[in-house]
Design brief:
By secondary structure, the chain is mainly alpha-helical. The protein is about 80% helix and about 0% strand. α2 packs antiparallel against α3, α6 runs antiparallel to α9 and α7 crosses α8. It is globular, with a radius of gyration of 18 Å.
Length: about 230
């Protein structure tokens, strides 16, 4: 019987290498959507689309396999009401922070959208197939993949369950670095998202709560991008 490797006990360089690898592979799915837009035939478009969902599912499976080797943290026993409060409370805090930061982003840098959202809007264009695929990925797949990687694995690999400030700072910085930013406010928007989700994870140990908050956040962000495209 093979012994399961506990990644938290591995040398620092190995743990860093694991995180770098996962941070790189999560950047791959959008490349498939770019290929969908560039494909010359309908058959090729559907082929690249299948690859988009396939690679996303493979990344999630890989991340979950790695997460199983980081201990899964310590989950607090919470009632349904407490779980609801953590999810919607965390989402409301996040929403208020992002509304305030977005206001300053418009005021100081004249950006109505972050560079990351602008890139997503350009990728979607007016291609219905890409819009639907990107929306599904952003709302259902990306929150799972990113939370397992940037909250579950990252925090459990480098921090204990009793630490709070370190996980918030590191998770926020790494998560923000994964998203395109052109000014400090834009960077802070994603830093806040990562930090709030890290706080929820550290306080509860429930990754499903952060996935739900992330999905709600992406639902609003995706709607704000998709609706204008559909109206034109």
């Amino acid at each position: 019987m093979r012994t399961r490797i506990d990644l938290t006990q591995q040398p620092l360089w190995q743990r860093v290498l694991v995180m770098v690898g996962l941070a790189l592979v999560i950047q791959v799915p959008p490349l498939f959507l770019f290929a969908v837009r560039q494909a010359g035939s309908q058959g090729a478009r559907w082929g690249w689309l299948a690859g988009y969902f396939g690679i996303f599912i493979a990344i999630i499976a890989l991340a979950l396999a790695v997460y199983q080797r980081t201990g899964f943290g310590l989950k607090r026993a919470l009632s349904w009401r407490q779980a609801r409060n953590w999810i919607f409370g965390g989402w409301l805090v996040l929403l208020c922070c992002q509304l305030a930061l977005s206001y300053f982003n418009r005021l100081w840098y004249h950006q109505t959208e972050t560079a990351n959202n602008q890139a997503i809007a350009e990728l979607m264009g007016h291609d219905p197939l890409v819009i639907v695929a990107m929306s599904i990925g952003a709302i259902l797949l990306s929150p799972v993949a990113e939370e397992v990687i940037f909250r579950g694995i990252l925090i459990d690999l480098f921090f204990s369950r009793f630490q709070l400030i370190g996980p918030i700072l590191v998770s926020g910085l790494v998560f923000s670095a994964e998203h395109a930013s052109t000014n400090p406010i834009s960077f802070l928007i994603y830093f806040t998202l990562g930090g709030v989700l890290a706080y929820v994870y550290q306080r509860t140990g429930h990754l499903e709560y952060t996935i739900a908050i992330h999905a709600l956040n992406n639902l609003l962000a995706t709607g704000a991008l998709v609706v204008p495209l559909l109206l034109h």
